TrEMBL record:
<dbReference type="InterPro" id="IPR052200">
    <property type="entry name" value="Protoporphyrinogen_IX_DH"/>
</dbReference>
<protein>
    <submittedName>
        <fullName>Flavodoxin domain-containing protein</fullName>
    </submittedName>
</protein>
<dbReference type="GO" id="GO:0006783">
    <property type="term" value="P:heme biosynthetic process"/>
</dbReference>
<dbReference type="GO" id="GO:0016651">
    <property type="term" value="F:oxidoreductase activity, acting on NAD(P)H"/>
</dbReference>
<dbReference type="GO" id="GO:0010181">
    <property type="term" value="F:FMN binding"/>
</dbReference>
<dbReference type="GO" id="GO:0070819">
    <property type="term" value="F:menaquinone-dependent protoporphyrinogen oxidase activity"/>
</dbReference>
<dbReference type="InterPro" id="IPR008254">
    <property type="entry name" value="Flavodoxin/NO_synth"/>
</dbReference>
<dbReference type="InterPro" id="IPR026816">
    <property type="entry name" value="Flavodoxin_dom"/>
</dbReference>
<dbReference type="InterPro" id="IPR029039">
    <property type="entry name" value="Flavoprotein-like_sf"/>
</dbReference>
<feature type="domain" description="Flavodoxin-like">
    <location>
        <begin position="5"/>
        <end position="164"/>
    </location>
</feature>
<dbReference type="Pfam" id="PF12724">
    <property type="entry name" value="Flavodoxin_5"/>
</dbReference>
Length: 170
């Protein structure tokens, strides 16, 4: 059976998009092909059997575009193999399950439970001060967020490898 798979992401400054692209590349090396698109370019998900959704975190919450997409498509996502990842500045010593709980509002948690994803991950992100608006710089300064690239590519690669193993189960 020919399965169609999708990676869709919500990324304002490109860090989450780069994670999505790395995941796609790693899955392709394992023989698993995913289409990839920015969340606003995904018009139809009914054709996809496997979906990876990645959202940047802004002020500690998922990108509003991702929240809107997940709410709108929850019925179609239910019953598919779905993985979620978040990317954003996080405390270095946080456990992934603590990060997932911390960065989701109660309304989206209920929808995530309904969708019943195969797995969720929250990866430390990247803040490039040069890419931020004046308001974003003010927020980063106000919350004393660490500036720099904290993405853990080994952790991301391990997560992608686990997805490839799940997809190869017949």
């Amino acid at each position: 059976m020919d399965r169609k798979a999708l990676i869709a992401y919500a990324s304002k400054h490109g860090s989450t998009r780069e994670i999505a692209e790395r995941i796609r590349s790693l899955l392709k090396e394992k023989g698993v092909i995913f289409n990839i698109a920015s969340i606003e370019n995904v018009k139809k998900i009914s054709d996809y059997s496997d979906v990876i959704l990645g959202s940047a975190l802004y002020i500690g919450r998922w990108d509003k575009r991702m929240v809107k997409f997940v709410k709108k498509n929850q019925e179609q996502l239910h019953g598919k193999r779905v993985w979620f990842f978040s990317s954003g500045p996080t405390e270095i010593n946080e456990l992934p399950e603590d990060m997932n709980a911390k960065h989701m509002s109660s309304s989206i948690k209920e929808i995530i439970n309904f969708i019943s994803p195969v797995d969720m991950a929250c990866f430390p992100g990247c803040i490039d001060i040069e890419k931020l608006s004046i308001f974003e710089k003010w927020i980063v300064n106000k919350v004393d967020a660490p500036i720099g690239d904290y993405r853990d590519w080994t952790c991301i690669e391990t997560w992608a490898d686990n997805i490839s193993k799940e997809l190869n189960i017949k």
